[in-house]
């Protein structure tokens, strides 16, 4: 019987899932992709098969599917009917925080769950939901092996100097250090470069993961040596609703002068800033690019400006640059944003091939460009499935 792997990415109000089938060749084929969204408000399950055909579209009253456990029950019912003849061999989870020590995926055990729960204060908006999904699977099928794959793990190759903050040393020991995120995406890109761009795979590469969350990573010979995100996923680039790097004095000012509570500041920094806050229109780059409102252009200009600054900083960490790689929703789909970034990076040696960029080719820099530019679609789910297979020796 064929084996399948379930991959779960649990957020605060959604539970995304993918089903991968193990092929005899060792490759993995995607058989289903879907999500329960609107948890807590208007729950809805949508799923497609591997060819993109809808296999589920269902809504419930909030009282019926109110949490991750109930959402998982609905997903389990769907998967049992679709994959009746196949064996579910394991579940891989995206877990945002692996703390200072986990530099690789982990087989979930009761002890591991205790260790991962200790990182909840480091990622209060994500970690509890990731762990809730693991517990929900345990409740349905306690014997099923589960694997936790961390967004922070790939960055544990960074040296200590780069992970420090200039706080008293004991803060570092307490875990207040730069962790970096989007690690599964960067790991996938690093694993893919030797095939699609072998000439740069072992060089000095900056990857720009530009989605609704956005960050950049410096890769040296496929290993992370620097990242724009730090202790939390608030640092670095400006994002859809997060401001990115800012003077911590602003937080003090808001606390002391405006009397904002910690919760209100959290809401401001995670949900009301970034492209949304600057434009006053929204956080969807497509909407901003189509708008002629002055603040939509201002938000885009600032988005590009921040990428330019971070690119310079990461090129300095690398001691030079061989290639820039774009990925994630904006990076993969917006030729305009790629063009604006590359124009700002001409001084580094990037010469964009406008036609290749418009066509969405893999290589988008001209043949003579000293530093090459690329578009590489990311696939965090496949990375999790690969880790799960490897750890479970499937
Ligand atoms: P995440 O996984 O962080 O939610 P994605 O990587 O899916 O985000 O990226 C989502 C973002 O990508 C959307 O907010 C949207 O602004 C942007 N996006 C998607 N397609 C396009 C496009 N064609 N042009 C510009 N932006 C796009």
UniProtKB/TrEMBL annotation:
Record: residues binding Mg(2+): 9, 380
Q: Which Pfam families match?
A: Acetate_kinase
Q: Where is this site: Transition state stabilizer?
A: 182, 242
Q: Does the keyword Cell cycle apply?
A: no
Cofactors (names): Mg(2+); Mn(2+)
List of residues binding substrate: 94
- Residues given in the record as ATP binding sites: 16, 209-213, 284-286, 329-333
Pathway(s) it belongs to: Metabolic intermediate biosynthesis; acetyl-CoA biosynthesis; acetyl-CoA from acetate: step 1/2
Reaction(s) catalysed (UniProt annotation): acetate + ATP = acetyl phosphate + ADP
Location in the cell reads: Cytoplasm
* A single BP term in Gene Ontology: acetate metabolic process
Q: Which UniProt keywords apply?
A: ATP-binding, Cytoplasm, Kinase, Magnesium, Metal-binding, Nucleotide-binding, Transferase
In terms of NCBIfam families, this protein maps to:
ackA (TIGR00016)
Functional note: Catalyzes the formation of acetyl phosphate from acetate and ATP. Can also catalyze the reverse reaction.
Protein name from the UniProt record: Acetate kinase
Query: Which source organism does the UniProt entry give?
Result: Candidatus Accumulibacter phosphatis
